[in-house]
Design a protein that fits this description.
Blueprint lengths: L6 E2 L14 E9 L2 E10 L5 E5 L9 E2 L4 E2 L2 E6 L20 H12 L4 H17 L2 E8 L16 H13 L2 E8 L21 H22 L4 E3 L1 E3 L7 H8 L7 E5 L3 H11 L3 H8 L6 E5 L5 H10 L2 E4 L1 H6 L7 H7 L3 E3 L9 H16 L15 H16 L15 E4 L14 H7 L6 E6 L2 E5 L2 E2 L2 H15 L6 H8 L4 H4 L1
Parallel strand pairs: 1-5, 2-5, 7-8, 8-9, 9-10, 9-11, 11-12, 12-13, 13-14, 14-15
Antiparallel strand pairs: 2-3, 3-4, 6-16, 16-17, 17-18, 18-19
Helix pairs in contact: 2-3, 2-14, 4-5, 12-13
């Protein structure tokens, strides 16, 4: 280290090493949307950054980081239960496969997951997301009911509680979005039988919201950090009624409101047929769009709709890997950037759980369709790096999407950071000024060595304290949900001590 020799990140073998720290010092850190040298960051008792200073030597009480520090990102759109389906829908038996065929197969998996399995699946996912650079996840939660479609009598929010427990187990921040789901389509007043677990009207969602908010208040009070946030979601215009939208959105304050919208051409055609308006156009005319709102996907948007979104200060959540996997289409990234629309990333169906992979695919889709390079870069605005501009955009937009007024390496924001592993092969020999370029476009396998959330180490030297146990429970849940899924080889490897499969 060029400056200061203080406490280093403890070895994973040191079981007595404290997980909490009060100060860290980085040789370089991403502060103010640029690399700064010799950065000291102090953590307050509330788990937030209390002091950020650049160009200083490490103090004796600071943990010296073994690489550059990046702020953690927000995963602004996740369906945790779909982690159990990732990799199992990549075969086609019919003449054509599309989003709607994938959806029907996904429903069959959703019908088999109980609360215990939900927690096991979510814990595995959340740990993977943390390792992928996300320190907060917005969970778009609509797997509400028991397998027969009835409300869980002993605890109506037990499926949501399973998500909270999974996030707490991993140490990840969670913005939980109980989701309104009323009908099967614009012309279908009821849900399909296979959608029975999703059923929840506006009153039920408001009751869930209040119960979850009480849980969040208690959780955040005992942890001294805001790790649990509560918002609301509307599944989609096709799945909710105008009355439900009005009831739900007039009963909110400044909490985030998320909605799937304009993801598929068929959705746009159905909305036009039913209402005479395109989805975003209808929402703009019939709801009070503002900074609380996050439009998930918004792929099929017209220039007029994009202008309206920009004027309202509404954000757009992009899910490049899922949108590619499902054949949704390519977003108008340059249009969103030109208009200054807040952008964030989501992993959605969980086919990818890495922030850098999502950013890479976002830019590469633009290059393939436009046949030019570095599409997101803006040299005329002194932003010649596509990776740096995209990272800054989703950093700022993601904090808003998750319900935070402050996010990143700044005073008052939660004390989250990622320590870049410059020893990973893709970053060897890369100068600090190009670290984000290589991180996004040179495919490092394990980019983040250590990860801090709310002032507490969640991973150290690529390992999580509970990683092995979480992985075992996930495999067992997968075997129960899909008996045809063979996890015996995986579990055998774990028993033989090959822990890198799930904890490395």
């Amino acid at each position: 280290m060029a400056k200061g020799k203080s406490a280093r990140v403890p070895s994973p073998a040191d079981e007595t090493a404290p997980l909490r720290v009060t100060a860290v010092w980085a040789p370089h850190a991403w502060v103010g949307n640029r690399w700064q040298e010799a950065v000291l960051l102090r953590i307050g008792a509330d788990g937030n950054w209390a002091h950020v200073q650049t160009g200083v030597a490490a103090s004796p009480d600071a943990t010296v980081l073994d690489g550059p520090a990046l702020p953690g990102l927000v995963n602004a759109h996740s369906h945790a239960f779909q982690r159990a389906f990732a990799g199992l829908a990549e075969r086609r038996s019919l003449e054509q496969d599309d989003f709607w065929g994938w959806r029907d197969r996904m429903y069959r998996v959703a019908l088999r997951i109980d609360p215990e399995q939900q927690q096991a699946i979510a814990a595995q996912l959340f740990l993977e997301l943390v390792r992928g650079g996300f320190t907060q996840v917005c969970e778009f939660h609509y797997l509400h009911n028991a397998m027969d479609g009835s409300v869980y009598r002993h605890d109506p929010i037990c499926m949501a509680r399973a998500l909270v427990a999974a996030a707490q187990e991993v140490g990840m921040g969670l913005t939980l979005l109980p989701t309104l789901y009323e009908r099967a389509g614009f012309s279908q007043a009821a849900l399909r039988e296979e959608q029975r677990r999703f059923r929840a009207n506006a009153e039920a969602i408001l009751e869930m919201r209040d119960s979850l908010q009480a849980l969040a208040d208690e959780t955040n009070r005992t942890s001294a950090a805001r790790l649990l946030q509560i918002g609301l979601a509307l599944h989609s215009l096709r799945a909710v009624t105008a009355k439900g939208i009005e009831r739900l959105t007039t009963q909110t304050t400044d909490a985030p409101i998320h909605i799937h919208i304009a993801e598929q051409p068929q959705e746009v055609e159905d909305c036009l047929s039913a209402t005479g308006l395109r989805p975003i156009e209808w929402l703009h005319r019939n709801a009070t769009l503002d900074r609380r709102w996050q439009l998930v996907h918004a792929i099929d948007s017209s220039p007029a709709e994009a202008d309206a979104i920009a004027r309202c200060g509404t954000g757009v959540v992009l899910c490049p890997s899922t949108e590619a996997n499902l054949g949704d289409g390519v977003t108008d990234l340059t249009g969103w950037l030109k208009r200054g629309v807040p952008l964030s990333l989501g992993s959605d169906s969980q086919v990818t759980r890495s922030a850098v992979e999502e950013l890479r695919l976002l830019e590469y889709a633009q290059r393939l369709t436009k046949r030019v390079r570095c599409v997101a870069a803006a040299p005329q605005q002194q932003q010649p790096s596509a990776a740096e501009r995209l990272w800054s955009q989703v950093l700022d937009g993601g904090g808003r999407a998750a319900g935070f007024a402050l996010w990143g390496l700044q005073v008052g924001a939660r004390a989250d950071l990622l320590v870049v592993d410059c020893a990973t092969s893709a970053l060897l020999g890369i100068p600090i000024a190009h670290t984000l370029d290589a991180l996004v476009f040179s495919s490092p396998v394990r980019p983040f060595r250590d990860i801090l959330i709310a002032g507490r180490w969640v991973t150290r030297n690529h390992r999580a304290q509970k990683g092995q146990a979480i992985g075992k429970r996930f495999v067992q849940a997968m075997q129960q949900i899909r008996p045809d899924t063979d996890g015996a080889q995986f579990l055998g490897a774990v028993r033989r001590g090959h822990r890198s499969l799930i904890s490395g």
